[in-house]
Design a protein that fits this description.
about 450 residues; 2 domains; 2 strands; mainly alpha; single chain; two-stranded antiparallel ribbon; transmembrane helix
Length: about 450
């Protein structure tokens, strides 16, 4: 163990004294972990506030037993759905940060394995790197959460703003969040370690992964079908039907992460085949070679598109039609909550895209340098990198739009699609989220010039 610690310290000292982009990679990973922690604590604090306003477990239980469930009791359930939706890109962002940090570490660990390092030594180095980066990022995210609480407290729900005490989570929740972020980093690092331990030569030679399979498409189709049939099989219990509906809704969204890489693999191959310019050809080949990585860089906008579809549907609810004041306030809060969730998802998508694109630039720096030395214009490489974001971004919006239609049309019919106001709001929300993602990709261009 002492030898492993000494080797880890020596490698970090060597990196700090060189211009190896490993340090920049670690900084980006820390930023991603910090964002993950801050957003996680904010959404947990919001859920806790609605839970307390509803009277806790006793108040919610009493409200569910009444003939008509009070609106105050419905807020925690809706906030819980939003939290569960946001947890998907949060986990993706945390895992992406760990994978990005591991991308440069894989080559170094593979070289150590080929030089005679044992599996236990390689495992120790992996855990130390993952824990150090995740811990620093999680601590920074906790500070960011404390700074964001006064800002989030100004949002109005149920006719009033939040008190600071409502959004402040306890020490156990903070510690649990820190442990969760570190655990995500360690598990992702061990996933990369498995490749290094088993095939160090494959990692060192950057072997191309196998092609995607069309069977992935069946997952979303099956989930959408279950979403239609499942609640009807729940019997007469409205609570059970709602629970089944929420679970299947989350599963349907999660299947986009299964279908997305396959769609990008197909789109990448088509883009490369029909390319009429060098930037488009480079972008298509890179997307087809690493569709999972391309999806992770823009997968957040798929969630934003999914939420935008649900939020746009809320505009069909018109509180001006002689409804009770509490019902009108509830409908207004539905829209506010939808836009707030959309804003958080868009922010996560932008950070995820910026971090992943920057990591890919660092990983491909030798290729970029070789192309420049061979006479390739840097402007061509910048255009290829931007198209490497625009093409998957467009495809991910298409995948999410199809998924939203598969979910919403059987439930509410074609009214949202035929309503111009709903369509315009949906397009504006998608455009705003896409703009944030493109801004994140543009920010990664600075790394290309530094690297």
């Amino acid at each position: 163990m002492r030898a492993t610690v000494a080797l880890w310290s020596m490698l970090r000292t060597r990196s700090s004294r060189s211009r190896d982009p490993q340090r920049l990679t670690e900084l980006l990973a820390v930023i991603a972990f910090a964002t993950t922690t801050a957003v996680l604590l904010i959404v947990i604090g919001g859920f806790q506030a609605f839970w307390d306003r509803a009277g806790g477990a006793d108040g919610i239980r009493a409200g569910l037993e009444t003939a008509e469930t009070p609106y105050d009791v419905q807020y925690p359930f809706l906030a819980g759905i939003a939290v569960l939706l946001i947890l998907v890109p949060l986990g993706t962002l945390g895992a992406a940060a760990a994978r990005m940090a591991a991308a440069r570490r894989d080559a170094r660990l593979a070289a150590l394995r080929l030089c005679g390092a044992t599996r236990s030594q390689v495992a120790g180095l992996t855990v130390m790197d993952a824990v150090a980066q995740a811990a620093v990022g999680a601590l920074a995210g906790t500070i960011g959460y404390a700074l964001l609480v006064p800002v989030v407290a100004q949002v109005r729900f149920q006719g009033r703003t939040f008190a600071l005490s409502e959004l402040v989570v306890g020490v156990p929740v903070v510690l649990g969040s820190l442990v969760a972020v570190v655990l995500i980093a360690v598990l992702s690092a061990f996933a990369s370690l498995r490749r290094v331990a088993i095939t160090p030569l494959g990692v060192a030679n950057r072997v191309t992964p196998p092609a995607m399979r069309a069977v992935r498409l069946l997952s979303t189709v099956a989930a959408a079908a279950a979403l239609i049939v499942g609640p009807q099989l729940a019997g007469g219990s409205a609570g059970l039907a709602l629970g089944v509906l929420v679970a299947l809704l989350l599963i349907t969204f999660a299947t986009m992460n299964v279908v997305g890489p396959f769609v990008l693999w197909v789109v990448g191959r088509i883009t490369a085949a029909v390319a009429r310019s060098v930037p488009t050809l480079l972008a298509g080949r890179r997307i087809a070679d690493a569709p999972k990585s391309a999806w992770r860089s823009v997968g957040g906008v798929a969630l934003a598109t999914f939420i935008a579809g649900l939020t746009a549907t809320f505009s069909l609810l018109d509180p001006a039609g002689g409804v009770r004041p509490d019902e009108a306030a509830f409908i207004a809060d539905l829209k506010t909550g939808g836009f707030l969730t959309l804003a958080i998802a868009g922010l996560l998508a932008a950070v995820s895209t910026g971090v992943m694109q920057a990591g890919r630039v660092i990983e491909q720096r030798e290729e970029h340098r070789a192309l420049v030395l061979a006479g390739t214009d840097r402007r061509t490489l910048d255009r290829a990198r931007m198209r490497e974001t625009v093409v998957p971004l467009t495809a991910s919006v298409g995948v999410a739009t199809v998924t939203v239609l598969m979910v919403m049309v059987p439930v509410v019919g074609l009214q949202p699609v035929s309503d111009p106001g709903v369509v315009v709001q949906y397009l504006l929300c998608v455009a705003a989220a896409s703009g944030l993602v493109l801004a994140g990709a543009a920010a990664a261009g600075r790394v290309a010039r530094v690297g």
